[in-house]
Design goal:
The complex is a heterotrimer of chains A (about 290), B (about 260) and C (about 350).
Chain A lengths: L2 H32 L6 H17 L5 H28 L3 H23 L14 E4 L2 E4 H23 L1 H11 L1 H6 L4 H23 L9 H16 L4 H22 L1 H18 L10
Chain B lengths: L8 E12 L2 E12 L3 E5 L6 H8 L7 E6 L2 E2 L5 H7 L1 E3 L12 H9 L6 H14 L15 H13 L5 E5 L7 H16 L3 E5 L3 H7 L2 E6 L2 E6 L1 H6 L1 H8 L3 H10 L8
Parallel strand pairs in B: 3-8, 3-9, 6-7, 7-8
Antiparallel strand pairs in B: 1-2, 1-4, 4-5, 9-10
Chain C lengths: L18 H30 L3 H26 L8 H18 L3 H25 L4 H21 L9 E2 L13 H24 L1 H11 L1 H6 L4 H27 L1 E2 L1 H5 L1 H14 L6 H20 L5 H16 L3 H7 L4
Antiparallel strand pairs in C: 1-2
The chains are: A mainly alpha (about 290), B alpha/beta (about 260), C mainly alpha (about 350).
């Protein structure tokens, strides 16, 4: 395989991986804190993408500007979802949470199907086709910005967890729920905040993703498994893991696509997913359960 | 009570060790449970007693040591195989099949040897009667009192017709009256031919039930002998009551201080 | 509890048949009668009802019940929630299509092979998952991954017709496993009856007792001698075979299959929601759940036209509501205890 083909593919893959990482960051946060596997993550991303689309198509809001709208909006949705739906339904049992998040995913996906049919929509920003020459390869500007966004978000999340009171409270609740309650932390509120932050990451991901991508009701499920693979590979609850995992998966998908063709390249992701689950379930950076 | 020094050795453990990360949970524990006897494994909290049970019954793999059941090396065998061979363990934190009735719970144990569901339920009925649960067969296992759940835990294990029963703190959490009522149950089990190896904290029970006692602390064996000897053993007293206690007690006995009630 | 004299070992006085054993026999008889009734009604129905619409409705309800039954074996009785049960459905469907179209195998023989393949796929997925201790969410994710992988494979291999799918030529009569309205109903009813019989067997036999013990407390089961891995494998193989029967029916009834229909989430969701709404781990739950889902589906179709998606929205809402308020499902609300 000639390097002129391999290198750009690899680089593009790494950058795409940034988006995967951004999507996975929210998922790993939610898992790390609430120990919930949020099956609705993909559907919620899809909903966010539609949000970005309509903000552009109806209001004329540039996706990057839409960050200011989408991030708080998704945060609010996440807070409400956890506080009033998921938290209520779980009765503390893991299997219930599994089913409830699946239910939410089904509802969102099929509502989208009902309202938007199967049409694929894209947005046309003036810079959509702009490219940048980086390290000897031509890559799209939007992808590069998305990668930057992923890094920035990871950094912000880390700051939040390490340096703020909320972050401390979140970490306390994640480690020892009852103990946190005993010292006066409103655990339900903190859980809802965490879920909200996780979805806020999705809102950011949607803003960075939309210029470079498209939306239809099925994109969510496409992202779900990739996001889970990233999280499992990186280690549940680890931000660094989500970053590294995302980038790796992006690279594998891109290079794998060169060999196997694009759709079969996706199977490589599932193979990795299953292999990690079976052989090293704690992932690269996770703690052994 | 059986003579603890003459029965055939049913379970033999030698040099059992297990480490978890930085913690040496079990360090060179050896014991022998003789057929028909009640052998006790005691020690202060965190001594590694339950870990020994987990290692012996196949739930954990030891780092070192040997385990022989009825002369047969069972190291590394899976728990369900060990159960089939005739050694059944109970759990310190009782593990009922929640959502199922008492009868259904016990029947699972019976199914080890019995294929027919009807027969298993019949056998469950017998075992329940024997352990005083006869009037609770239809109840949901999760709705029992703590004493009931402890009996259920024993009943499930007993239904497997074990040759050796590993009882893990069956008296924990029971009030004195309940303990009193449980003692004859255990005694009769042993009298009926079931060899018992029990972990216990309730000293009154250990002293009155056990033929042979092993004491471990911090994962290490510190004493072995008949109840009377163990009760006087300095090392045992120290491990339970703190360093130097044995000397202090001996000093008190030697020169009794005048202590009049005030 | 007073201290009683505990009888020493040896036979107690001739044991009165315990209440539990009696109840068991009574339940089995009741279920048996129910199954026979169901079969009788289903087989006789086309003689009295000529409305194609009604016959179709009953058939499709039974079809949904079969899918729910298959899921119920692994999820309800076994406690292992699969989110990708379509993987077995698609196996059955594609097996039928490929075997008949590419190899000219007789339909009934193909069905036998399709069921066996469903069980085999179950064993493979089960072995990989359970051998490595996957449970709960991880198992659910793994099944999703498998279903998606199969979908992509089917979409890309010419062997399976790639994205275009495969079409079955029309044939005549039940001997060719082809259905008219009456035949479809009777075929489906027979499959559901078999499913019910399997459920009764699970409730009344040792395998089922072991399976539910594993579901309720795997370690405790292990300690009592239950061979956990073989039992789990048996359950997933059984579940896979029954689910693949659903795929067999689909392809024979609609004469067409493609990757999305075969391995897509719709089938997985239908199976799962039907079983949960009806009541996990019960004998009649899947049927009850399927009936409710079908009814709701019809109602929404009348209200919203034939729009895609609304059906599944209802399923999703029902799932969330059930899990939140009625985790025992319909049988829990109306059945009064495990049936």
């Amino acid at each position: 395989m000639p390097i002129e083909i391999l290198w750009p593919s690899l680089l593009n893959g790494l950058l795409t991986g940034g988006i995967y990482a951004l999507v996975a960051l929210g998922l790993t946060l939610i898992y790390g804190v609430l120990h919930i596997i949020n099956f609705a993550h993909g559907a919620l991303l899809m909903a966010a993408l539609y949000g970005v689309y309509f903000l552009f198509a109806r209001v004329g809001l540039d996706p990057y500007v839409a960050l200011l709208v989408m991030v708080p909006a998704m945060f609010a949705i996440g807070y409400a979802l956890q506080r009033f739906v998921i938290g209520r339904a779980s009765h503390g049992k893991d299997e219930n949470i599994l089913l409830v998040t699946l239910g939410v995913a089904i509802i969102i996906e099929n509502l989208a199907l009902y309202f938007f049919r199967s049409d694929t929509r894209t947005i046309d920003t003036p810079y959509a086709l702009a490219t940048v020459d980086l390290l000897g390869a031509t890559i799209s500007l939007t992808k590069l910005l998305a990668f930057g966004g992923a890094l920035a978000t990871a950094a912000l999340l880390w700051l939040l967890m390490a340096r703020t009171d909320l972050g401390r409270a979140i970490r306390a609740c994640a480690k020892e729920r009852q103990g946190a309650r005993l010292v006066g932390i409103d655990v339900d509120h903190v859980f809802a905040m965490s879920f909200g932050i996780g979805l806020a990451c999705l809102g950011a991901a949607a803003c960075f993703l939309m210029p470079a991508y498209y939306v239809n009701p099925q994109v969510g499920s496409g992202f779900v498994l990739v996001a889970f693979t990233v999280v499992v590979l990186g280690g549940m609850g680890s931000f660094a893991g989500a970053l590294v995992g995302g980038i790796l998966i992006g690279a594998v998908e891109s290079v794998g696509g060169l060999w196997l063709g694009e759709s079969l390249g996706q199977i490589a992701i599932f193979v990795i997913f299953l292999a990690v689950l079976l052989l090293r379930p704690q992932g690269l950076f996770g703690a052994r359960a | 009570m059986s003579d603890a020094t003459t029965g055939r050795v049913l379970l033999e453990v030698e040099g059992l060790s297990k480490r978890f990360g930085g913690l040496q949970a079990v360090d060179g524990v050896s014991l022998a449970a003789r057929e028909g006897a009640i052998t006790a494994l005691i020690g202060p909290n965190g001594a590694g007693k339950t870990t020994v049970f987990a290692l012996v019954s196949g739930f954990l793999r030891p780092d070192a040591g040997q385990v022989r059941f009825d002369g047969r090396d069972i190291l590394g065998m899976a728990p369900h195989v060990v159960a089939r061979l005739g050694m059944t363990r109970t759990f310190q934190i009782v593990q009922p099949f929640a959502g199922q009735t008492v009868a259904e719970n016990i029947a699972i144990g019976a199914h080890l040897h019995v294929r027919s569901r009807r027969e298993a339920l019949e056998r469950a009925h017998e075992v329940a009667e024997r352990l005083g649960l006869g009037d609770q067969l239809g109840k949901d296992a999760a709705s029992l009192t703590i004493a009931g759940r402890k009996r259920l835990e024993m009943a499930k294990a007993l239904a497997t017709r074990p040759r050796l029963l590993l009882l893990d703190e069956v008296l924990a959490g029971l009030n004195p009256g309940e303990v009193e009522r449980m003692l004859p149950v255990v005694r009769d089990l042993a009298a009926s031919g079931v060899t018992i190896l029990m972990i216990e904290h309730v000293m009154q029970a250990v002293m009155s039930l056990a033929d042979d006692i092993y004491v471990i602390a911090n994962g290490r064996p510190i004493a072995h002998g008949a109840p009377a000897a163990i009760a006087r053993d300095e090392r045992v007293i120290e491990s339970y009551l703190g360093h130097g206690t044995a000397a202090r007690l001996a000093a008190r006995e030697a020169a009794p201080a005048v202590e009049t009630a005030r | 509890m007073n201290t009683r004299s505990i009888p020493l070992s040896g036979a107690p006085a001739a044991p009165a048949a315990s209440a539990a054993a009696l109840r068991l026999r009574r339940d089995v008889l009741r279920h048996g009668v129910g199954i026979v009734l169901l079969l009788a009604v289903a087989w006789a129905l086309p003689l009295f009802v000529t409305s194609g619409f009604t016959l179709n409705a009953v058939t499709m309800t039974l079809y949904a019940a079969l899918l729910a039954q298959a899921w119920n074996i692994l999820g309800g009785f076994g406690g292992q929630f699969s989110f990708g049960h379509a993987v077995f459905f698609g196996t059955g469907a594609y097996a039928m299509a490929v075997l008949q179209v590419r190899y000219g195998i007789h339909p009934w023989a193909a069905m036998g092979i399709a069921l066996a393949l469903g069980a085999l796929v179950g064993l493979v997925i089960g072995w990989l998952s359970f051998r490595y201790g996957l449970r709960g969410s991880y198992f659910a994710l793994a099944t999703l991954a498998f279903a998606e992988s199969f979908r992509i494979l089917a979409n890309n291999l010419d062997f399976t017709g790639a994205g275009v799918g495969m079409q079955l030529p029309l044939g005549e009569g039940l001997a060719q496993l082809q259905f008219d309205k009456a035949g479809a109903l009777r075929f489906m009813a027979t499959l559901v009856a078999v499913g019910l019989a399997v459920h009764v067997w699970l409730r009344a036999g040792r395998f089922g007792a072991w399976l539910t013990a594993i579901r309720d407390n795997e370690d405790a089961a292990r300690a009592l001698g239950v061979p956990v891995l073989p039992v789990k494998l048996g359950a997933i193989a059984l579940s896979g075979a029954l689910m693949s029967a659903g795929g067999v029916f689909y392809v024979q009834a609609f004469h067409y299959i493609d990757p999305h229909l075969a391995y897509g989430p719709a089938v997985s969701v239908e199976a799962l929601v039907g079983a949960i709404v009806g009541g996990m781990g019960t004998v009649w739950g899947p049927l009850a759940g399927a009936a409710v889902l079908h009814l709701l589906g019809e109602t929404t179709r009348n209200l919203f036209g034939g729009a895609p998606g609304i059906n599944l929205v209802i399923y999703g809402v029902l799932l969330v509501l059930m899990v939140t308020f009625a985790p025992r499902g319909l049988m829990g609300i109306f059945g009064g205890g495990r049936k």
